[in-house]
Specification:
By secondary structure, this protein is an alpha+beta fold. The protein has helices spanning 8-22, 69-85, 106-123, 174-191, 203-210, 216-224, 239-250, 265-273, 278-284, 300-303; strands spanning 31-33, 40-44, 47-57, 90-100, 126-134, 140-150, 165-169, 231-234, 253-257, 291-295, 309-316, 323-325, 331-333. A hairpin with a 6-residue loop joins strand 1 (31-33) and strand 2 (40-44). The radius of gyration is 20 Å and the shape is globular. The structure holds adenosine-5'-diphosphate (ADP) and magnesium ion.
């Protein structure tokens, strides 16, 4: 090692991934797409195999003070299935790595796997392997998911065209506010253990944080309506950050309208309570696991009446301009804040 030391914060997560990517070239013809999308694409004849992996670390991604182990098991699977959904694919298998300390009882491990089992059942996925190790520090969960799509129906981040309509499912910002509520209740509890948290009012938000669902329902419905998105990504880091990915990979600009961004009533009210701007929570709050995709305007009629798909803007031809049109009709640049990992 020389004297140079570069802080990882200078690159950020995406800079670091770009750097790793630049050092590797695929050697196998079967590697259709490596680093850079929600899942890798591997040639399997008429099908494309999809592979994606996610790590969940105690103290970084979850806090066992408010994350029941059963929910954690469910969420760990759901977030992986979501990355397969983001390729317009269907998840089929997972392998699960677990590093655990003797701080956990068998009952705790059982609770975790009950959640894994529930998610496997719900998403029709098989747990086919993994690894178990002891952990000196916190709980570590690593899941790799395998999925499949008809090779003509795989959707990447890079396929959007000028004037394609930007669509988002569900509503945004709720998972982030759910986390704020849980963190606040934890602090209240730590300072006064006799206080029982009153989470009823925040049930929806807390549920969005603890029990996210992969939007496989949307994938099936789009197929039934013969609507093939031109590009797609799941919203794990926040809408703005994911819009940047679609823009960058499709070499286009994005334009979205504040009044079209779906925000639930509870999210709105709770943002105000926390002195946060609701649109900021929707743009930059992570972990909603909704789908963000683009469609050709010709496909709009096929899904325009879908109650859970919202049309928030369109792609345009200047890749340097990612903008938000505010409710006051002011055009402001979008910032890709996302989550800062380093
Ligand atoms: P997502 O949010 O959809 O899970 P990420 O932002 O985690 O995607 O990753 C973006 C891309 O970079 C993916 O293709 C992922 O496989 C790849 N990637 C992330 N970390 C690494 C790594 N350490 N080595 C190789 N590829 C990586
Ligand atoms: Mg993703």
């Amino acid at each position: 090692m020389g004297e140079n030391r570069t802080e990882l914060s200078q690159l950020g997560e995406f800079g670091l991934i770009d750097r790793i990517n630049s050092k590797f070239q695929s050697k196998n013809a079967s590697t259709l797409k490596g680093i850079g999308d929600d899942a890798a694409m591997i040639d399997a004849g008429d099908n494309t195999l999809l592979v994606s992996t996610d790590i969940l670390l105690e103290g970084v991604h979850f806090d066992l003070a408010y994350m029941p182990l059963q929910h954690l098991g469910y969420k760990a699977v759901a977030v992986n299935v979501s990355d397969i959904a983001a390729m317009n694919g269907i998840a089929e298998q997972i392998v699960l790595g677990l590093a655990i300390s003797n701080r956990f009882s068998l009952e705790a491990v059982d609770a975790f796997f009950e959640g894994v089992q529930a998610a496997c059942k719900n998403y029709n996925v098989d747990l086919v392997g993994g690894d178990t190790a002891s952990s000196a520090a916190g709980l570590v969960i690593s899941i790799t998911v395998l999925g499949r799509a008809d090779k003509k129906r795989v959707v990447q981040r890079s396929g959007a065209h000028v004037n394609d309509i930007i669509c988002v499912t569900g509503d945004l910002g709720a998972a982030y506010l759910g986390l704020q509520v849980l963190a606040r209740e934890k602090q209240v509890f730590l300072s006064n253990p006799d206080m029982q948290p009153d989470l009823e009012k925040y049930e929806y938000l807390v549920g969005r944080q603890l029990k996210p669902e992969a939007r496989m329902d949307i994938i099936h419905e789009l197929r039934d309506k013969n609507c093939l998105p031109t590009s797609m990504i799941d919203i794990s880091d926040g809408l703005a950050s994911e819009l940047f990915h679609l823009g960058k990979n499709s070499n286009l600009g994005v334009k979205i309208f504040e009044d079209k961004v779906p925000i639930d009533h509870d999210t709105f009210e709770t943002a105000i309570e926390f002195k946060l701007d609701p649109i900021t929570c929707a743009l930059h709050g992570g972990e909603d696991y909704e789908l963000l995709f683009t469609i050709s305007p010709a496909d709009y009629d096929k899904i325009k009446n879908h109650p859970d798909i919202h049309f928030i803007g369109h792609m345009h031809n200047d890749p340097t301009q990612h903008v938000l049109v505010t409710k006051q009709q002011t055009v402001v640049p979008l910032k890709a804040q996302g989550w800062k990992h380093f």
